[in-house]
Every structure is written in C-alpha cells, then in structure tokens.
C-alpha cells in the first residue's frame, strides 16, 4: 500500500512538473549563448582565407517558466527581464522576431559598407526609405501605420533615413497634420496624420512609431552573409572585421581567436549593446584570445567596464580591449604580434 501511495504522489509530481514547464511567466530569461565562427557565415567572392578567426557572441533568451525563473535567480550570469523591457507594448512574438531580423539586416549592410570602404573596394549604400518597427497604441500613428510599412516621404520630402524622418517630425508642432507616403505589400499608399504629444516629452510633437532605415547595398566583389535566425544589431563590429579580413591579403586576426560585440554605424563608430557580461562568458567558454568591447568614449558605465568586471569575476585569460571605432580595432590588430604556433 505504501508503495502504491508513493507511486501516486510521484505520478502527480511528474504531471505538475510538466504543466509548470509549459506555463510561462511575464518575464524573459537571458543567459550566455555561443561564440560562433563567422567564416562559415560570410563569403566574399574570391576572398582570402587566413588562420585567424573572428567570432560573434550571442545571448540566449526565452520566456520564463517557474523552473528557468528560479534557476536565473540563483545564477550570476542569467538575467530576468519583464516582458515590456524586451518587447514593445502590444508587440507579438512574430512582430518582435521581425524587428530583430530587420535590425540584423541593417547591421549587416552597414558592416559591409564600413569594411569595403576601409579595404578600398567599391561600395554604395542606398536608402530606400524607413521601416516602421513598432506603433504605440493610442498615439498619432495608431490605426494608420503598421509594422513593416516603409515610409518614403513626408509632405513630399523624401525620408531617406530614420534620422531625416525624425528631423522633419521634430520641426513640427503638436496638432500639425502631415502627409505620409509609404509602401505596404508592394503598393504605394498615403495617409494624413495629426501629430500628438511625444510620449517622453509633452511639449514636443510625436508620431508614436519606432524606425529603422531600409538600405540597399551594392558592392564589388559580391558577398553573401547567412545569418539565419540571428537577430539584432550587436554583431555589426565583428561582421565588419570578418568581411575586411576576407577582402585584404594579410591575416588581420594574425592567428588569434577574436570575438567581440557592438553595433556599428555608417561612420564606423561602435555602439553600446546589451548582455555583454553574458557574452564575455560565452567567449571564454569558446577559448577566445581577444574580446573587443564598446568603450563608449570612456564612459564610466561603458560596455567595456562591464566586460572587465565579468572577465575578472570568471578569471578569464582572454584580453578585453576597449573599442570606440572600427579603425580602433584595425589599429590594435595591426600592432599585434602574430600568435606563436
């Protein structure tokens, strides 16, 4: 009888564990991901192949359940975020994935431009307008624009970049009406929108959308980059370095395993990203020699400073190098002695 009772409670416990595993909480959990070699993902036609390796680092993220939430509470390198800190308000999982993948596409295009220009190769980045990445409920654009619309003009003025579009909005007043031309499902459309208050500044006009510039890039030699389901802009610096390494004859990495992180803009500036401590762990686990971290011009709480703390905590032998620009990374590598065999 006692054995039957034990089996009964064991069965109930197993069922409860299975149920709790599928019940998600209103949080995301992030943890160290992988350090992935970029050479298999990047192919410059006729490009050079060298001994050194550039790697991108990732952070794994998933919706929390009781078990993953509890484990994250006990871990130094797992973080818990409320859903509204990861996804925009009322944004679905599909919309979030769409936004992340388009940010990666934009990051790749910028990385190509920076690397080709540095290598002295022909490249041209052409803007095709600005993508709508989110629409805030209750604000001016709600019900008029949707995620994926590509805005091409405001009041007849071309919006070639997200910055140009916001400059136009910032020149307007609350209550002004603007005429927006946009592409949706390959059809040209237009809509009039009355500007309301900016969600973060009630004295400033706002439209209630987030944006990303849609680029078309032309280069020689041709290049293919396969990022599959990698999302977000944080691999920009490392893509630039891998592309540049294939464009020039010398082994830029000089035989080292080099990882890093940081978004990159058209001017080659390396920008702050999230999850750098977890990326330090991922790089260390992969046996990386050198890690490039955004320095943010020496800011007290820069990614670089966060990376140093994590590196010291896990007692890694990996060198962590502060980087403000793509040129900083190249300058460091040019002065680096080749790795002894």
From TrEMBL:
<keyword id="KW-0720">Serine protease</keyword>
<dbReference type="InterPro" id="IPR014721">
    <property type="entry name" value="Ribsml_uS5_D2-typ_fold_subgr"/>
</dbReference>
<keyword id="KW-0472">Membrane</keyword>
<feature type="domain" description="Lon proteolytic">
    <location>
        <begin position="229"/>
        <end position="336"/>
    </location>
</feature>
<feature type="domain" description="PDZ">
    <location>
        <begin position="100"/>
        <end position="171"/>
    </location>
</feature>
<feature type="transmembrane region" description="Helical">
    <location>
        <begin position="9"/>
        <end position="29"/>
    </location>
</feature>
<feature type="active site">
    <location>
        <position position="279"/>
    </location>
</feature>
<dbReference type="InterPro" id="IPR027065">
    <property type="entry name" value="Lon_Prtase"/>
</dbReference>
<comment type="similarity">
    <text>Belongs to the peptidase S16 family.</text>
</comment>
<keyword id="KW-0378">Hydrolase</keyword>
<keyword id="KW-0645">Protease</keyword>
<protein>
    <recommendedName>
        <fullName>endopeptidase La</fullName>
        <ecNumber>3.4.21.53</ecNumber>
    </recommendedName>
</protein>
<dbReference type="InterPro" id="IPR020568">
    <property type="entry name" value="Ribosomal_Su5_D2-typ_SF"/>
</dbReference>
<dbReference type="Pfam" id="PF13180">
    <property type="entry name" value="PDZ_2"/>
</dbReference>
<dbReference type="InterPro" id="IPR001478">
    <property type="entry name" value="PDZ"/>
</dbReference>
<dbReference type="InterPro" id="IPR008269">
    <property type="entry name" value="Lon_proteolytic"/>
</dbReference>
<keyword id="KW-0812">Transmembrane</keyword>
<dbReference type="InterPro" id="IPR036034">
    <property type="entry name" value="PDZ_sf"/>
</dbReference>
<feature type="active site">
    <location>
        <position position="234"/>
    </location>
</feature>
<keyword id="KW-1133">Transmembrane helix</keyword>
């Amino acid at each position: 009888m006692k054995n039957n009772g034990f089996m009964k409670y064991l069965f109930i416990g197993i069922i409860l564990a299975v149920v709790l595993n599928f019940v998600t909480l209103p949080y995301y959990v992030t943890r160290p991901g992988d350090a992935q070699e970029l050479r298999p993902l990047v192919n410059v036609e006729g490009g050079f192949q060298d001994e050194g390796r550039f790697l991108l680092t990732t952070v794994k993220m998933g919706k929390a359940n009781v078990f993953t939430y509890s484990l994250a509470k006990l871990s130094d390198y797992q973080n818990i975020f409320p859903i509204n800190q990861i996804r925009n308000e009322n944004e679905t999982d599909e919309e979030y994935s769409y936004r992340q993948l388009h940010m990666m596409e934009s990051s790749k295009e910028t990385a190509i431009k920076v690397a080709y220009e540095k290598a002295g190769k022909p490249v041209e980045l052409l803007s095709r307008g600005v993508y709508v990445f989110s629409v805030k409920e209750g604000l001016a654009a709600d019900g008029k624009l949707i995620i994926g619309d590509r805005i091409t003009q405001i009041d007849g003025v071309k919006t070639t970049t997200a910055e140009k579009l916001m400059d136009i909005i910032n020149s307007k007043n609350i209550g002004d009406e603007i005429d927006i031309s946009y592409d949706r499902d390959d059809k040209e459309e237009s809509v009039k929108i009355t500007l309301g208050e900016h969600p973060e500044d009630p004295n400033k006009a706002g439209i209630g959308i987030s944006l990303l510039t849609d680029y078309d890039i032309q280069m020689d030699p041709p290049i293919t980059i396969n990022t599959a389901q990698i999302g977000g802009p944080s691999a920009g610096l490392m893509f630039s370095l891998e592309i540049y390494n294939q464009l020039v004859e010398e082994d830029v990495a000089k035989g080292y395993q080099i990882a890093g992180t940081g978004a990159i803009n058209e001017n080659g500036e390396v920008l702050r990203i999230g999850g750098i401590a977890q990326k330090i762990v991922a790089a260390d686990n992969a046996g990386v020699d050198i890690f490039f971290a955004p320095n943010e011009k020496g800011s007290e709480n820069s990614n670089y400073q966060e990376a140093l703390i994590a590196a010291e905590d896990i007692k890694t032998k990996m060198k962590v190098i502060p980087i403000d620009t793509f040129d900083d990374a190249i300058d460091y590598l040019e002065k680096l002695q080749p790795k002894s065999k």
